[in-house]
Design brief:
With 833 residues, the protein is of the alpha+beta class. The protein contains 20 helices and 38 strands. The longest helix has 23 residues.
Length: 833
C-alpha cells in the first residue's frame, strides 16, 4: 500500500512540473551549472543562434545537430557557413570608406546615404570600425554616439546571379542602404559575424559594375563595432537549416528546449542535479544532457544525433595549447580535454576561467571520439556518422586547427514512439580551493580515494533515479513558491536556483569542516564574502542549513585562528579560488559583517531548533555582539553591503541590521539556557528599535540616514524582524515603508534609495516580504519579472539594475539571488513557529 501511494505522489508531482511553463524570458539560460568555473549558458532567446558561453561571456562552444533523412538541422550553438568572398569584410582584409561620427539623435545634413552626396568633409578610414580590440578594428569608433559609413565596390553579373549574402557584425542597431535605397535594418547587436542571404528585392538593388553601400550604426551602451562585406554561400549550406525552437522552459534543476526538425521533433534537456539535501550529488561535477526524438508526421525517418564540445571549455583565454584524448570507463566511453600546462590553482581573480583540470564528454551508448571540427561536420552532413577519430591530439591554435570532442548516435527508424538517450558532461578540477595555504580537493574527492571516472560511472548508473528526484523536487519547489508569492515569483525563483548554488564551490577543510565558498561574480572576485552570503542564505536555510554553516566556517576560522584580530567580522577570506585571508582592505564593513554573522547564526538555530552551532563559536559571536552594542545604533561613516553607493554615516538601514544582530544574540543566549541575560539583551535591542524610530522618522517614510531629512531608502534588513517573529520594531514602520515604496517605483522596480535610480533585486524581494498582503508583494516583485523579461542585457541574472530602463548596472551570475527565496522562508518559519 505504501509503495502504491508513493508512486502516485511522484506521478502527481511529475504531471505538475510538466504543466508548469516558465513564461519569463531569461536574460541568459542556464545549461551547465556546477561551480564558478564549470558554468555554461546560452546568451540568446534561441539555443541555436549563438555560441554557448561561460557566465563571464567568453565563448565555450557546445553544438548539437539532428540529421533527418540527409538534411542537417542545427539545434544548439552557432556554426559559421562556408562562404566565398566577393566584397570582403575586414575580418579578411581592411577596406576603404568615408565616415562621420555624430552625437546621439543627430545625423549628417542631407541625404547622406545617396552616392551623389558630397562627403568631402567626412573623414577617411579603414574598416572595420569599433572600440579598441573589437573585430579587426581598422578605425577607432568609441563613445555613446552614431557612425555613418560610405563604401564603394564592384560586382560581376555572375556574382549577383549566384545569390549574395551580407556578412556583417554590429553593435548596436544597424541599417544599410544599397545604391541609395534602404535595404536592411537589424536591431540589437551581433555577438559574432552574421550572414544574411539577400532576398530578391535586395538583390535587385545591385548591378554589374560599380555599386555603393551606406551604413548607419549606433551605440547606446558599452563597446561598439561594425564591419560588413558580401559573400556567396557554398552549396553545402543548402542541406543545412536551423531547427525551429518551439519552446523553452527553465525549471529549478532543468532547462528544457523543444525543436521541430522538419518531420521530426526533438526535446533537449539540461539537468544539474543540485539537490541540496544530498551533498555528494551537489558536489558531483557531472551534468546530464538528455534528448528525446520522435516523428511528427506519422512516417519513419532516418535520424542521427551529433553533439560536439570545443576544448576552449578547459582554458582561460585562447590560444592555450590543449591535449584531447578518448577512453573507456565502467559502462561508458569518454573524451577529455585539458591544457598541457595544468597550472593547478595558478591564478585568482574575477574575470577568469579555469585552465587546469579536464573536461569530459561521456555516454553509455553511441560513439565518442575526437575529430577535426570541419571533418566532423562534413562527415555528419554526408553520412550521419563521424569516423575520423584523431585521438590524443594536441591543439595549439583553435582558429587554425579547430578540433571537437564528439558524440554521435544513429537512430535508423524513428517513428511516433519516442526514442531517447542521454550524455554526460563533467569537469575534474583536481584541486578546487586554496584554503589558508592548503590546496583542497573537491568535496566529492575529499578523501583522495575517488576518481572522475568513478563519478561518471555513478552518475550513469543513477541517471533514472536522479532524474525522478529532480522532477519531484522541481514540482515541490515551484508549488511552494507559487503558494508563497504567486506564479511570477515562482518563475523568478526557478531562474535563481541553479545560479545561486553554482556560484559556490563545496570543499572540506583538513579539519573536516564543511566549506561552501562563494565567488563574487563580476563584483570583485572575492571568496567567502560575508555580505554576499547574507543575501543568499534564504535559499540554503530552506533546503540545507549545513551549507550556511559552510559559508560561515571560513569567517570563524579566520577570526578564531588569530589571523584576524579585530573586534568585528571580516569582509572576506581572499580572492577566488585563494582563501588565504581578507583582501577587501581597510576595516571592511564592521557593522555590516558583524550584524550579518549574528543574524545568520540565529537563522541556523531557528532552522535547526537548537543553538549548538552558535555555542561552538560563542566567544567570537560575543565579541561581535559587544561591538554592535557599542557602535551599531548610529553607525559612523563606513561602507555597507551596498558599497557601490559609497561611504555613509548614520545609515538607518545598517542600524536596523545592528539592532537585529543584537536581538539575535539575545535569543541565542536564551536558547543556550541563559534566559535571564538573553531576555535582558533582547530587551535592550527593543529599546534601540524604539530609539531608531524616533531618529529615522521622516513623516510618510523613514530616512536613508538619521541626519538627512528628505532622504529615503529600502529598509530590507527589517525583514528579519518579521521572519524571526521578533516584533521589536513597531509594525507601523514596515507598513509605512511598503506604502512609500509603492509610490517610488519606476518601470523596473523601486530604487535602492533616494540617491540613484539603480536598485538591487534581492533587496526588493526582502522589502516586498515586509508587505502584509500578497497584492503589495506582487506589485513590488512583478517589476523584477518585467525587467528580466525585457532587459537587453543578455547575461546571467544581474542583481544590480537600473529601475528606469531595462539595463543592468553591474554584477552578474551572483549567488545573492538566493535571496529571492526570502518570501518562501518567511512562509516556512511562520508555519513552523
Amino acid at each position: 500500500m505504501f509503495a502504491a501511494i508513493l508512486i502516485t505522489a511522484v506521478f502527481a508531482c511529475n504531471n505538475k512540473v510538466e504543466s508548469f511553463i516558465n513564461e519569463v524570458r531569461p536574460s541568459a539560460t542556464p545549461l551547465i551549472t556546477v561551480d564558478p568555473y564549470f558554468s555554461v549558458w546560452s546568451f540568446s532567446d534561441n539555443l541555436n543562434t549563438s555560441f554557448t558561453r561561460h557566465w563571464t561571456g567568453i565563448p565555450q562552444p557546445l553544438d548539437a545537430y539532428l540529421r533527418v533523412d540527409g538534411h542537417v538541422y542545427r539545434v544548439m550553438g552557432r556554426e559559421y557557413p562556408d562562404l566565398m568572398q566577393v566584397v570582403p569584410a575586414a575580418k579578411y582584409e581592411p577596406w576603404d570608406a568615408t565616415y562621420m561620427i555624430c552625437d546621439q539623435d543627430k545625423s549628417p545634413i542631407g541625404k547622406w546615404y545617396e552616392e551623389g552626396y558630397d562627403d568631402s568633409s567626412w573623414q577617411k578610414g579603414k574598416g572595420a570600425f569599433g572600440s579598441y580590440g573589437s573585430y579587426m578594428t581598422g578605425t577607432v569608433w568609441k563613445g555613446l554616439n552614431d557612425i555613418y559609413i560610405r563604401r564603394c565596390f564592384d560586382l560581376d553579373e555572375s556574382q549577383i546571379k549566384d545569390g549574395l549574402s551580407l556578412e556583417y557584425v554590429y553593435d548596436e542597431d544597424v541599417e544599410f542602404y544599397i545604391n541609395d535605397s534602404l535595404a536592411i535594418v537589424t536591431k540589437g547587436y551581433a555577438e559574432a559575424y552574421e550572414v544574411l542571404k539577400l532576398n530578391e528585392k535586395q538583390l535587385s538593388l545591385l548591378k554589374p559594375g560599380h555599386n555603393f553601400i551606406a551604413c548607419h550604426c549606433l551605440n547606446r551602451y558599452g563597446t561598439c563595432n561594425v564591419d560588413f562585406g558580401f559573400a556567396i554561400p557554398s552549396q553545402k549550406n543548402e542541406r543545412k537549416s536551423l531547427a525551429v525552437q518551439k519552446s523553452l522552459n527553465v525549471l529549478p534543476t532543468s532547462t528544457i528546449y523543444s525543436f521541430e526538425c522538419g518531420p521530426v521533433d526533438l526535446q533537449l534537456t539540461f539537468t544539474s542535479p543540485l539537490l541540496l539535501d544530498n551533498l555528494e550529488m551537489v558536489s558531483r561535477p557531472v551534468n546530464y544532457i538528455s534528448y528525446e526524438i520522435n516523428s511528427n508526421d506519422g512516417n519513419q525517418h532516418d535520424v542521427q544525433f551529433l553533439f560536439t564540445a570545443d576544448p576552449r571549455i578547459s582554458v582561460d583565454l585562447a590560444p592555450e595549447p590543449v591535449i584531447s584524448e578518448t577512453g573507456t570507463g565502467s559502462g561508458f566511453k569518454y573524451a577529455k580535454t585539458g591544457t598541457i600546462r595544468q597550472p593547478y590553482l595558478g591564478k585568482k581573480g574575477d574575470n577568469i576561467r579555469i585552465d587546469w583540470g579536464y573536461f569530459y564528454l561521456a555516454a553509455c551508448n553511441g560513439e565518442i571520439l575526437i575529430a577535426r571540427t570541419e571533418d566532423a561536420n562534413d562527415e555528419f552532413l554526408e553520412t550521419g556518422k563521424v569516423t575520423s577519430d584523431t585521438n590524443n591530439i594536441r591543439t595549439d591554435n583553435f582558429e587554425k586547427t579547430p578540433v571537437s570532442l564528439v558524440y554521435n548516435r544513429d537512430f535508423p527508424n524513428v517513428g511516433d514512439k519516442v526514442q531517447k538517450d542521454f550524455i554526460m558532461v563533467a569537469y575534474d578540477d583536481v584541486y578546487s580551493i586554496q584554503y589558508f595555504w592548503k590546496n583542497l580537493k573537491p568535496y566529492w574527492n575529499r578523501e583522495g580515494t575517488e576518481t572522475i571516472l568513478g563519478q561518471l560511472a555513478t552518475a550513469a548508473h543513477q541517471y533514472k533515479g536522479v532524474m525522478k528526484k529532480c522532477t519531484k523536487f522541481d514540482a515541490k519547489m515551484l508549488d511552494d513558491a507559487q503558494k508563497a508569492g504567486g506564479k511570477k515569483y515562482a518563475e523568478l525563483c526557478a531562474l535563481a536556483y541553479r545560479q545561486s548554488i553554482a556560484a559556490h564551490k563545496l570543499v572540506e577543510s583538513e579539519d573536516g569542516e564543511l566549506l561552501f565558498l562563494s565567488k563574487e561574480c563580476f563584483s570583485n572576485g572575492c571568496i567567502g564574502t560575508v555580505d554576499v552570503s547574507y543575501p543568499s542564505v534564504p535559499l540554503f536555510l530552506l533546503y540545507n542549513p549545513d551549507l550556511v554553516k559552510g559559508m560561515m566556517n571560513p569567517i570563524f576560522e579566520f577570526s578564531e585562528s588569530g589571523r584576524w584580530n579585530k573586534p568585528f567580522a571580516t569582509h572576506d577570506v581572499g580572492t577566488y579560488p585563494m582563501a588565504n585571508g581578507e583582501v577587501y582592505g581597510g576595516d571592511g564593513m564592521p557593522v555590516e559583517e558583524s550584524g550579518n554573522m549574528l543574524i545568520m547564526t540565529y537563522a541556523i538555530a531557528r532552522a535547526e531548533g537548537n543553538a549548538e552551532y552558535a555555542q561552538k563559536h560563542w566567544e567570537t559571536l560575543s565579541t561581535w555582539a559587544n561591538y554592535l552594542m557599542e557602535f551599531g545604533m548610529d553607525p559612523a561613516e563606513q561602507l555597507c553591503t551596498d558599497d557601490f553607493g559609497g561611504h555613509l554615516a548614520h545609515n538607518a538601514n545598517l542600524s536596523i541590521k545592528a539592532i537585529l544582530g543584537i536581538a539575535s544574540y539575545g535569543k541565542l543566549l536564551s536558547m543556550l539556557g541563559d534566559c535571564e541575560t538573553g531576555d535582558k539583551i533582547f530587551g535592550e535591542a527593543k529599546k534601540m528599535a524604539a530609539q531608531w524610530e524616533t531618529m529615522a522618522n521622516d513623516g510618510d517614510h523613514y530616512r536613508l540616514s538619521f541626519d538627512r531629512p528628505g532622504t529615503w531608502s529600502q529598509k530590507y534588513n527589517l525583514v528579519w524582524d518579521k521572519v524571526f517573529g521578533f516584533n521589536i520594531f513597531d509594525s507601523r514602520i514596515a507598513d509605512t515603508e511598503v506604502a512609500f515604496y509603492l509610490t517610488k517605483q519606476n518601470e523596473y522596480g523601486v530604487p535602492l534609495d533616494s540617491r540613484k535610480n539603480w536598485t538591487k533585486t534581492d533587496w526588493i524581494m526582502w522589502s516586498a516580504t515586509l508587505a502584509d498582503n500578497i497584492e503589495d508583494f506582487k506589485a513590488l516583485t512583478d517589476k523584477i519579472w518585467k525587467y528580466q523579461n525585457e532587459t537587453y542585457a543578455r547575461i546571467p541574472m544581474s542583481d544590480f539594475i537600473y529601475t528606469d530602463r531595462p539595463m543592468y548596472a553591474d554584477f552578474r551570475a551572483r549567488s545573492v539571488v538566493g535571496g529571492y527565496f526570502m518570501k518562501m522562508l518567511e512562509h516556512k518559519f511562520s508555519v513552523t513557529e
